[in-house]
Design brief:
Barwin-like endoglucanases; 4 domains; Rossmann fold; alpha/beta; Dimethylsulfoxide Reductase, domain 2; single chain; 33 helices; 31% helix; globular; 6-stranded mixed β-barrel
């Protein structure tokens, strides 16, 4: 190595690392709450809330909630955090699948044995050597596009230095990789809605709750369950929105819930439940629009001033385009809601001050783009959007939606840098990509080509649990030469990997985060609580070690320690102007309160007051009830305005004994996180399996009683679950929470109950290529032949005393990194550097050409303040985005 590429060893020997390693940074413990008890209570924060960790003799023994910071701490915080820290499912050492270790030089790695054969414990250098060689061999022989990162989303933990960011930074230093685009949460609407209403909407702040309390007469929950889903969030949940929901209810607001099943929110908010056939919401809102038009309740003045294309959509509603008027009787046959009820609901919403909240789950369906769009059009038809307490919102159920926004910048971590690879894979299309390299696909109005993937590199993401049709994915993975996975626990994503690296949990390292996805009114220190379990390392240090192995340690670390990066991240937040870092770190948090005026903020309010001065970021600057751009794509499955299209699988075409499966977010987990917590499983699992909610009539027909094991199956797979009988789910529909850990029995059935063995890889449309997880049919029967207990939480077989031969460094060819490094960022503009250093956001693309100019304009108003850009910096970044967006003039 040259003096310009120092190794970590040389850095440490030089003594520079001592900076930041003593004094303030060595002081982690807060004062004890109880002065007579032992003092070790250490501040930390998670997706489930902030807390004081109780530590005795170096061990975590308890979790203390902090009432002034967490409005309603829940069981995931109080039980799950401690349970999973020392759970048997922890990965304690680097592991390599036996056939891969034995045959890495010959290439006979037997990929068909993934998930079936034992792992061998190795040292870190052996694992790093094998990974480095595979990465460089692949980049040299096939190009960097053959390396695929499945680490999208960043939900692994609440910190800024989360694994997907660390992985992205590392891989981009060696030329980049193929990445995913879009996500699972709201993949359809995040592509459609910017063209319709000028913003993603699904990730946008909602009208301040006090405005709702003081103005809203009717609040409609369409598949929306805020009481459940606000239990967690992308950053640190603080649960401050629960009391405001109660105030809104108690102030006389009437709640209506349109849903196939009654929810916790319906109970809490005293909502009227209107039971609907899953995936038929477009038919309902179309029929309500028909009735509004028939009764003359539409707001023509509003549509003339604030919308375009209303006449084309109204022609469809009236049946002028297809000869089928969208009457309440027409919709009743599809939705199974009485026509009289549809009329009553339409009139109520039209004449009342109405807020409509649509869940993300609505668009996780075939033709999912249509659903939120239909809600927007109905609200525009009745003149609601932008008025205080009225309109539409698609993130009420998440992240404290409705809490006043601080509007202040938050900590920003390390830049991922430029990815030189332009190939993408839509997030729900991984299986298709692996199966069909070279195949063309459309996404966001552009055409792409699936690359030929040789490496799947996964960090902190359980993609094996949330990809649809899991059996098909397992088969597709056999075509891949290398699968690497970095995780804290033996999740599904690690059990089908070749090399597994043990990540430390956030309790075993330092990090930083924020409170409230939308309020952003608190900055939290995620202070190290205990020493790493086994030989685990933080994600930062894992990639630091791999970078060091490949001679790019200086570029990855900037010559700094993790705590130095954390301090720099904090200094970029608005809180640093009021609270010095040492004070923040000692206390564990800093506040940056929302201004008083934020409590009266209305979504789309400025547009409503003056649409000429405050146009939306759509082609017309108005709400596009008909979108010429989308229509111009000429997609059979996504036309230019929202229409009802029959699904390939739903109750309208189901056979007599089939049921429709919905898979909502779980109550006691964050997707798959917390599934290994024994105390949480005791609260809800049935005979150790995932519960299924079944209508009593459906259960009686099949001889299923409460607590029985049930086999659910279709031509894609089979799962075993436990029956929970209920009158609060409509007949013909069953509900299984997504995200449990899988365990296959000898017949190939998931003995744990992972619903994605049933779900389909059918795309939403050619516009978004998004998931259709909620468009699925299956059959079910009482299970009489379950094979023993669920073993999803046990370690795979591990060989501890295997003799591992030393690897000759000459074979690795590590010097190949230098040729890749020479070209990186050589021609970057100042705006490009600022974007990649400071503006990467969780739901925006990492490649600028994946968004149109208007899509970037729609997200920068929230992105720039969070990044803390001044006016000049914002202008430079805007210029870079506009010059390189997907629809920018070609240079």
């Amino acid at each position: 190595m040259t003096v310009f590429q120092p190794t970590r060893r040389a850095f440490l020997q030089g003594g520079v690392a001592a900076i930041g390693a003593v004094g303030l940074f060595g002081t982690r413990a807060l004062a004890s709450i109880d002065p007579n008890s032992f003092p070790d209570r250490i501040f930390h924060a998670t997706h489930y809330g902030p807390f004081n960790a109780v530590v005795k003799d170096g061990k975590l023994i308890g979790v203390n909630a902090i009432p002034e910071l967490d409005g309603q701490p829940n069981e995931m915080l109080l039980f799950g955090v401690a349970d999973r820290t020392y759970d048997a499912s922890r990965i304690e050492y680097p592991m390599v699948r036996k056939s891969y270790l034995d045959n890495w030089q010959t290439g006979d790695i037997k990929p068909q044995l993934r998930g079936k054969e034992p792992y061998v414990r190795v040292d870190w250098d052996t694992a790093y050597s094998l990974m480095a060689k595979a990465l460089l061999d692949t980049a040299s022989e096939y190009g960097n596009q053959a390396i695929f990162s499945s680490s999208y989303g960043g939900w692994a933990n609440a910190g800024n230095f989360r694994p997907n960011v660390m992985q992205g930074r590392f891989l981009n230093l060696i030329g980049g990789c193929t990445i995913t685009q879009g996500d699972w949460s709201a993949g359809a609407s995040q592509i459609c809605l910017p063209r319709v209403i000028g913003d993603m909407e699904v990730y946008s702040a909602q009208t301040a709750w006090e405005v709702i309390r003081d103005n809203t007469e009717v609040f409609v929950l369409v598949g929306c369950d805020p009481i459940k889903n606000n239990r967690i969030e992308y950053t640190v949940a603080d649960h401050q929105i629960y009391a405001p929901w109660g105030e809104i209810r108690d102030n006389g607001c009437r709640f209506i819930s349109i849903n196939p099943q009654r929810t916790a929110s319906d109970d809490y908010l005293d909502a009227e439940w209107i039971s609907i056939v899953p995936n038929t919401d477009v038919a309902l809102f179309s029929a309500m629009a028909f009735h509004v038009l028939e009764k003359g309740l539409e707001d023509k003045e509003y549509m003339n001033k604030y919308t375009v294309g209303a006449d084309k959509w109204i022609a469809y509603i009236k049946g002028n385009t297809d000869g089928v008027p969208k009457t309440p009787e027409w919709a009743a046959a599809i939705t199974e809601i009485d026509a009289s009820k549809i009329r009553e609901l339409a009139e109520l919403l039209a004449v009342s001050k109405t807020q409509i909240a649509g869940a993300w789950s609505l668009q996780r369906a075939q033709h999912g783009e249509m659903t939120h769009w239909a809600i927007v059009n109905f609200a525009a038809l009745t003149g609601k959007i932008g008025k205080p307490g009225q309109g539409v919102g698609f993130s009420w159920h998440y992240g404290g939606g409705g809490m006043p926004q601080s509007g202040k910048s938050t900590p920003t971590g390390l830049s991922q840098g430029r990815n030189w690879v332009k190939n993408i894979c839509p997030a729900s299309r991984i299986t298709e990509m692996l199966e069909h390299p070279g195949e063309k696909f459309t996404y966001n109005g552009n055409e792409g080509t699936y690359p030929d993937i040789k490496i799947v590199f996964n960090a902190g993401n359980n993609f094996m649990s949330h990809q649809q049709d899991t059996n098909r994915l397992i088969r597709a993975l056999t075509k891949v030469e290398h699968v690497f996975s970095i995780d804290v626990w033996w999740t599904a994503a690690t059990r089908w990997a070749d090399i597994v690296l043990p990540a430390a949990s956030t309790l075993e390292r330092d990090d930083i985060s924020v409170g409230g996805t939308y309020s952003n009114d608190k900055i939290f220190a995620m202070k190290q609580v205990i020493e790493p379990v086994g030989e685990s390392r933080s994600d930062y240090h894992i990639f630091e070690g791999l970078a060091d192995k490949m001679g790019i340690w200086q570029q990855f670390t900037d010559g700094l320690e993790l705590i130095d990066h954390i301090q720099a991240a904090y200094e970029r937040s608005a809180a640093a102007k009021e609270t010095p870092f040492d004070e923040f770190w000692t206390k564990g948090y800093a506040r940056q309160p929302a201004p008083v005026e934020a409590r009266r903020w209305t979504r789309h309010g400025e547009f409503y007051k003056d649409p000429a001065a405050n146009p939306l970021h759509t082609a017309s600057g108005k709400i596009e009830m008909y979108c010429e751009e989308i229509a111009g794509f000429n997609l059979d499955d996504c036309p230019g305005y929202p229409i009802w299209m029959e699904k390939h699988e739903y109750l309208g075409n189901a056979e007599e004994d089939q049921v429709h499966v919905v898979s909502p977010h779980p109550w006691y987990r964050l997707h798959s996180q917390m599934d290994q917590s024994a105390r949480l499983r005791d609260l809800y699992k049935i005979q150790g399996r995932e519960p299924v909610r079944i209508n009593r009539q459906d259960a009686e027909k099949r001889g299923i009683a409460d607590g029985d094991l049930v086999e659910m199956f279709n031509d894609r797979g089979s799962i075993i679950v436990g029956a929970v009988l209920s009158d609060d789910i409509r007949p013909g529909v069953v509900s299984v929470y997504e995200g449990c850990w899988p365990s296959l029995d000898s017949k190939g059935r998931c003995n744990s109950g992972l619903v994605n063995f049933l779900t389909s890889t059918q795309r939403s449309s050619g516009l978004s290529q998004a998931t259709t997880a909620n468009t699925v049919l299956c059959r079910m029967r009482k299970c009489e032949d379950a094979e023993g207990p669920n073993r999803a939480y046990e370690k795979p077989e591990i060989i501890e005393d295997y003799e591992v031969a030393a690897i000759d460094e000459e074979v690795l060819g590590l010097d190949r990194v230098a040729t890749i490094m020479e070209a990186l960022l050589a021609d970057a503009t100042e705006g490009e550097k600022i974007f990649y250093e400071r503006c990467t956001v969780c739901h925006g693309p990492r490649e600028v050409s994946h968004f149109t100019q208007n899509q970037w304009k729609g997200i920068t108003p929230s992105m720039f303040p969070r990044a803390g850009l001044d006016e000049n910096e914002a202008a430079l970044v805007t210029q870079f985005l506009m010059e390189n967006a997907s629809d920018a003039p070609k240079k």
